[in-house]
Write a structure and sequence with these properties.
mainly alpha, two-stranded antiparallel sheet, 4 strands
Length: 194
Amino acid sequence: MHASFQALTDALVPSVQEANGFPYTDMGVHDYIIYALDHYVSVQQQLHHFTIPLSYPTAIMLDAAATQLVMTHQAQAYSQSLFPGGRMFSCLSREDRIRTLSALENLEVDLYLLPSPFQNNAGMVKHVTDALNRFSMFGYYSEWSAYGSTRLCPPEDRCLEWFPLSWQQVGYPGVSLGYRDFRGFLITMAEVKT
């Protein structure tokens, strides 16, 4: 399962060889996607919302969609996974992994061959595929990578252990109690009375 999400983030987030001693693979964006799928996506069943772990079925969905593309000659798989323990999705090139996501988002795969809860559920497939894109970017550009050993703790127990590489890349100065922001136009009392 981890290999599928490592392959996903390898295809979606900016490629960084190494900076400040932290290689790209140590940013843990794939861990954020797994955490988010298991904790933030809810499924509605009749009148109730349930948060169910979706990381495992999502990894299976990515592999099933990749297999369909390979079988229809729309993608070509390497003989072995580029990521340890990976299945079909992680055996594809970056371009073919993006093509797989596009096929899922555009519902160009046989939905009957996908795992539950995605099987024959076009809305769920589109929703989670879109979430994969957003979670990848959010995990990369947020402070997630700097939480280090506390990243899987509850939010109130997390603490920054270093300055995130992605913040350096975009020039974000870091956490502050408040930044000056445009808060509207100043008006005088004389203007209010007229």
